[in-house]
Amino acid sequence: MVTKDLSRISFYNQIARNKRNSVFLIISILIVLFILITVIGLALQADIFFILILATIISIVYVWVGYYSSDKIALASVNAKEANPSQYKQYYDIIDGLTIASGLPKPKLYIMEDKNINAFASGRDPKHAVICVTTGALEKLDKQELEGVLAHELSHISNFDIRFMTLTAVLVGMIAIISQIFLRSLWFGGGKSDNDKGNIIFLIVGIILAILAPIVVQLVQLAISRKREYSADASAVKFTRSPTGLIKALKKIKGEHSPPSKVNKAVAPLFFGDPFKRNLDNFFSTHPPLNKRIEILERM
């Protein structure tokens, strides 16, 4: 039943659902942030509260900059270079075919030096998107396999996953920043201005929220990220009309023995496969296990 549902995903329904999920998650995180700052302010009743307000303003600016510069930040973090059309003709030809078939604008294409097979997409929307592949993917994958991987990344663009991933990443970071400022401030006597029972209760609640809020929000982010990988796999099959290339690419990644990629942890969820090669099935995984992805694709 699960496989049938995945194979019949509508592009339009998926985009609409992702937009709704993005708005819902953003509102949820902002509510958590508001509650966190309110409780911390009531607990401390000191100047540190104004520091937290300032930190919130800075975080919002951080979200804004991250949203509009997500592609540049991601590319810079892996030292990617724009792909030369004459040198990487097959790369460009495959993208040309996929964008014509999908009706998507053509993204800018980049290359990153890495022996592992991988790729990622970034940008705030289809008109401002980029795709980056590793040199390992271009060297080790045949045309059909590379087409499957690139179709997967285009699916993330089509489904507005890149917007969602960017916003959730910066918002989760914002919660973590506020929580850390509060917890560190306690070491400097930020909560000693009032010792009545009410203040102590708010202080305890604030500490609990500061510890749990970043963890809970990150777990929600990772769970949705894993689910979207399955959806992107299914959408890629719709683009290419066959799961074969994607299956073969995932099997090649599974059989790789080269060391994990050296990338920033923050951009790891953007990649086609887990760059750290953890391949685990738990709450803290950024990607579904390769075996599960292959199994679902083989039933399509």
Task: Report on the architecture of this protein.
This protein has 300 residues and is of the alpha+beta class. It has one domain. It contains eleven helices and four strands; from the N terminus they run ααααβαβββαααααα. A four-stranded mixed beta sheet has the order 1-2-4-3, with helices on both faces. β3 (119-123) and β4 (129-134) form a beta hairpin. α2 runs antiparallel to α3 (48-68) and α3 runs antiparallel to α8. The longest helix is centred in the C-terminal third of the chain and has 44 residues, at 197-240.
Keywords:
alpha+beta, 4-stranded mixed beta sheet, 11 helices, about 300 residues
At a glance:
This protein has 300 residues and is of the alpha+beta class. It has helices at 2-7, 11-44, 48-68, 70-77, 89-102, 135-140, 143-158, 161-185, 197-240, 244-254, 290-298; strands spanning 81-82, 108-112, 119-123, 129-134.
Topology record:
Blueprint: H1 2-7, H2 11-44, H3 48-68, H4 70-77, E1 81-82, H5 89-102, E2 108-112, E3 119-123, E4 129-134, H6 135-140, H7 143-158, H8 161-185, H9 197-240, H10 244-254, H11 290-298
Parallel strand pairs: 2-4
Antiparallel strand pairs: 1-2, 3-4
Helix pairs in contact: 2-3, 2-8, 2-9, 3-8, 5-7, 7-9, 7-10, 8-9, 10-11
